[in-house]
Write a structure and sequence with these properties.
6 helices, four-stranded antiparallel beta sheet, disordered N terminus, four-stranded mixed beta sheet, 14% helix, globular
């Protein structure tokens, strides 16, 4: 049974006409608003000098802001990419950093103007949650469940949390960091659905839990390959890997109910869209960059498609944006942690 919805947010980012069906409820209610080791394919097999410096504990980057520190995490840095570990009660897969092609590469189709191919280098490996954050996890940590699809799928507790703002995702990550004794990646004030959070310093050098940057999200979804969806070589049709418009029954589903991608990550295509850390500007997609992150703006990126998405919206390169205070019942998130970074 679905709960009574919160007031919809009127701060909607202008989207192309093709996007309107994704968040139609937001557009139509403006009168009531409030203010195992796996191969990694095309990732570079040679680690850069910057990677080597990070592994040895040296900091080749700039100074760090309050609440963020760098150094060697001896408990994580030696684990090979593809390793699955249980960190603070949830499963995470170590995803390789390195250099990869992001955006509209040869394996893609239905490309849009904001998906320009460019080269990205990530100087840290990073631990990526195997599943989207579930309603059970969110409620146990935060004391409430904002989701519209309470009781979805076969197990309420294992459905992805939905109807969360970007700020609520950041607040959850902060609570997880504090509970684990890690430096927080955000400064947050307020509580519940009124919380407001801002990013502290360089996210790549933050020891705590956080929402992935857009580059980290796409790197993990691709996992060194160039498939249309977040899939593996053995399962190359959307129905194997995603709950989407044609098979979802107009609801989200228990996490991990479809096949994982090559990195062992589930639901990166379909089920619920996932917030990314970056600010979003449809007309300003980054070019070739190292550790890209954009923090300027009130809108944030979301990725991966959801239960009501047509196939083209579940592609690993599809991008959209929404005000950070916006939410919908097809939008959730997952967490990451940088490897090789520790708290004082």
């Amino acid at each position: 049974m679905r709960r009574a919805p919160r007031d919809k947010i009127c701060m909607i980012v202008p989207m192309p006409r093709r996007r309107l069906s994704v968040f139609a409820p937001l557009v139509l209610t403006l009168g009531a608003c409030r203010t195992a080791v796996v191969p990694f394919g095309s990732f570079d097999s040679e680690r850069s000098a910057a990677d080597s410096a990070l592994d040895s504990g040296s900091d080749s980057g700039s100074g760090l802001d309050s609440g963020v520190d760098s150094g060697t995490d001896s408990g994580a840095i030696d684990e090979p990419c593809g390793t699955v570990e249980t960190l603070d009660g949830a499963d995470y897969t170590k995803v390789c950093g390195g250099t990869f092609e992001m955006g509209c590469t040869a394996g893609q189709s239905d490309c849009q103007g904001d998906e320009t191919q460019h080269t990205v280098t990530l100087t840290h490996d990073y631990w990526t949650a195997t599943h989207e954050v579930t309603q059970r996890q969110f409620e146990e940590q935060m004391g409430y469940n904002p989701s519209g699809f309470v009781g979805c799928g076969s197990s309420e507790s294992d459905c992805p949390v939905d109807s969360v703002t970007w700020h609520e995702g950041a607040a959850y990550a902060t609570a997880r960091s504090e509970g684990a004794g890690l430096a927080a990646c955000y400064a947050c004030s307020g509580s519940g659905d009124e919380v407001e959070c801002s990013v502290l310093g360089d996210p790549y050098r933050c020891a705590g839990y956080r929402i992935p940057t857009e580059a980290e999200w796409e790197g993990a979804a691709r996992c060194g390959e160039d498939h249309r969806y977040a899939q593996s070589e053995a399962h190359q049709t959307i129905d194997w890997v995603a709950w989407y418009l044609d098979n979802s029954g107009e609801t989200s589903h228990t996490v991990g109910g479809k096949t994982a991608n090559t990195c062992g990550l589930y639901d990166m295509s379909g089920n619920v869209w996932e917030w990314a850390l970056d600010a979003w500007d449809r007309d300003d997609y980054p070019g070739d960059e190292t550790d890209p992150f954009e923090n300027d703006g009130i809108y944030r990126v979301f990725r991966g498609g959801g239960w009501d998405s047509p196939p083209e919206y579940t592609r690993v390169v599809d991008r959209a944006g929404l005000a950070a205070i916006g939410w919908d019942d097809n939008l959730g998130f997952r967490l990451v942690r940088s490897a090789g970074v520790h708290s004082d």
